[in-house]
Specification:
- The protein has 15 helices and 20 strands.
- The chain has 3 domains: about 140 residues, Nucleic acid-binding proteins (OB fold (Dihydrolipoamide Acetyltransferase, E2P), Beta Barrel); about 260 residues, Bira Bifunctional Protein, Domain 2 (BirA Bifunctional Protein, domain 2, 2-Layer Sandwich), CATH 3.30.930.10; about 60 residues, no CATH class.
- The strands form 5 sheets. An 8-stranded mixed sheet has the order 6-10-11-20-19-18-15-14, sandwiched between helices. Strands 1-2-3-5-4 form a 5-stranded mixed β-barrel. Strands 7-9-8 form a 3-stranded antiparallel sheet, with no helix packed on it.
- A hairpin with a 4-residue loop joins strand 8 and strand 9.
- The radius of gyration is 29 Å and the shape is elongated.
- Helix 6 packs across helix 7.
- It is α+β, with helices and mostly antiparallel strands.
- It is about 35% helix and about 25% strand.
């Protein structure tokens, strides 16, 4: 039998001993006044004399993290995940039930203690315990000596232990919640309406991604988990809701990496009568405000760099210009698919999935946009550390964006890069139903050629556009990646409470 098995057996024996004493190891409720952190917030500034004069009696709950036996007095540390409160326990002064309970305690147990708030001889805020009760028996040992979990997979798989053992993990998720609150406050103050759109859809759309498929038994109908809420949010623009946003869960059946999880959270917002240029200004303003409110300043430390959000306006570069600069050639030398295909082969980069195998890259319809995007992602994107807007994406990779009137090869679109990652994606929304229908048909041709991530044809969305959608701008911001930046975390798994992992063997 392993040491872990021994510990579990001993803890279960203590549960049985409690039952023999008539003590419930998992009572249904508890009358609690405060948790340790709240005790410190309210009374942490009181002197010993002030506490004695006030005679503060409290019932405090928390998880047992340490026990120190000093003879006639035991010191127990109760934690709530944010702070600890010391209990001064004198067994001789306890009632019989509390005194008997002391011998059945283990680290990790949830306890309730009633007593008077004092300062110990060392000056530590403490509860002079008059009674101790069990709230939940810990039948498994916690991370050894509370030094924290170092194994990453264990931290992700058993996040509950990670939160207990690593206070920094808790702070990451508190920061994430603050970001979401800040986003809502920012958009609400500007007249945006928060909405909810379907997560199960007949036709997946709004992003180039492979969807997850599920089945509705009663209707005998295959449905798709949404890859993006975009097409439904734009339907709302048609309906007269001219400023809308959704903080949404999306699902994409794609690979897993430090920047990708199949289930993730996005902010998407749309504004009638706006365009991508106005959205650049708004995104700058939003992220700057979030940094000030959440972190207290607009400089973000991230992976050894300092990201300067306050140096506005942020640089705006075209994708074609950025690729040409990275290759060290004039823009005129990246103006054809054949030129780009030569560079792709010279650099040993993979063929874009949207382009058919067995055919010359430079001669395929729509090849220019996919090749330009592939070169950008390989040669430019990793170096975009400081906030940078990349504009003018090719029309082949932007099926929902308006084209530039001065160059129909490109669209009115931008992506925001920070820390070498794409953080935001936005464009002037395509609202011509005939053009949108043709773009969908182009996507169908790409699917027929083997691109599993190309759009389906959404007939109802085209019908909605036929009723008239005002000119508009729309943007999406990845909440997970934004949290990575603000929390200085290099993996998306660090900022998702329960990231997707393979099942445990056995």
């Amino acid at each position: 039998m392993s040491e872990l098995d021994d510990q579990i057996r001993n803890r279960r024996a203590k549960r049985e001993a409690l039952a023999a004493m008539g003590v419930e190891a998992f009572p249904a409720r508890a009358a609690v006044d405060l948790e340790p952190a709240e005790v410190h917030t309210r009374f942490g500034a009181r002197t010993a004399e002030e506490l004695e004069a006030e005679g503060v009696e409290l019932r405090v709950a928390g998880r047992l993290r340490a026990v120190r036996d000093m003879g006639k007095t035991r010191f127990l540390d109760l934690h709530d995940g944010r702070a600890k409160l010391q209990l001064l326990v004198r067994p001789a002064r306890l009632d019989d039930a509390s005194r008997a309970l002391l011998d059945q305690l283990d680290l990790g147990d949830y306890l309730l203690s009633r007593g008077r708030l004092i300062r110990s001889r060392a000056g530590e805020l403490s509860l002079d315990a008059a009674a101790v009760a069990m709230l939940a028996k810990s039948l498994r040992p916690m991370p050894e000596k509370w030094h924290g979990l170092s194994d990453l997979e264990t931290r992700y798989r058993q996040r509950y232990l990670d939160l207990v053992a690593n206070p920094e993990s808790r702070r990451v998720f508190e920061l994430r919640a603050a970001l979401v609150r800040g986003i809502r406050a920012f958009l609400d103050a500007r007249g945006y309406l928060e909405v909810e759109t379907p997560m199960m859809q007949h036709t997946p759309g709004g992003a180039t991604a492979r969807p997850f498929v599920t089945h509705h038994n009663a209707l005998d109908l295959d449905l798709y988990l949404r890859v993006a809420p975009e097409l439904f949010l734009k339907r709302l623009l048609v309906g007269g809701l001219h400023r809308v946003y959704e903080i949404n869960r999306n699902f994409r059946n794609e690979g897993i990496s430090t920047q990708h999880n199949p289930e993730f959270t996005m902010l998407e917002f749309y504004c009638a009568y706006g365009d991508y240029l106005q959205l650049m200004d708004l995104v700058e303003e939003m992220l700057g405000a979030l940094a000030r409110d959440v972190l207290g300043g607009e400089d973000l430390p991230y992976r050894g760099e300092t990201l300067h959000l306050g140096a506005r306006p942020w640089p705006r570069i075209s994708m074609r210009g950025a690729v040409a600069a990275a290759l060290g050639v004039p823009e005129a030398e990246v103006d054809s698919a054949r030129q780009l295909a030569t560079w792709l082969e010279r650099l040993g980069l993979e063929r874009p999935a949207a382009l058919a195998a067995g055919q010359p890259l430079g001669d395929q319809p729509g090849a220019y946009g996919h090749l330009l995007m592939a070169l950008f992602e390989a040669r430019v994107e990793p170096g975009l550390v400081q906030p940078t807007f990349v504009t003018d994406h090719p029309v082949e990779v932007s099926p929902l964006a308006k084209i530039r009137s001065d160059d129909p090869r490109f669209t009115e679109r931008f992506e925001l890069y920070l820390g070498g990652m794409e953080i935001a994606n936005a464009f002037s929304e395509l609202n011509d139903p005939d053009v949108q229908a043709e773009r969908f048909r182009e996507q169908l041709r790409a699917r027929a050629a083997g691109d599993d991530e190309a759009h389906r044809f959404d007939e109802d969305f085209v019908r909605a556009l036929e009723h008239g959608m005002p000119p508009a701008g729309g943007a999406g911001i990845g909440i997970d990646r934004l949290t990575m930046l603000f929390a200085d975390r290099s993996s998306i798994r660090d900022v998702i409470l329960f990231p997707l992992l393979r099942p445990e063997r056995g």
